[in-house]
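Record 1 of the preview.
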Amino acid sequence: MNGQTSPAKIKMLEGSLQCFVCGLIGLLPVIGFPLSVLALISYRRVCVEQRGLWNAGQTYLVWGFAFGAAGIVISLSVFGVVLFAALAGKLF
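->
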């Protein structure tokens, strides 16, 4: 193990776990929207940093991306339904 790549691998693993946790919390409608965006940003950062290195947290990274994308879709869907109901006059 190269001494210079160890900090990079640790940073990649931490970024993968951050992506997973933010994506998982991001599944909460509306409240989780910012965390879903953060999960996608974390995914991109880790992907750029991992070039040529093996990422032990690759599974967490992929699931965090999937959860983050799903969280954005869920939040936008809830927002759209509420907006549509408000404009139709059936909300209140």
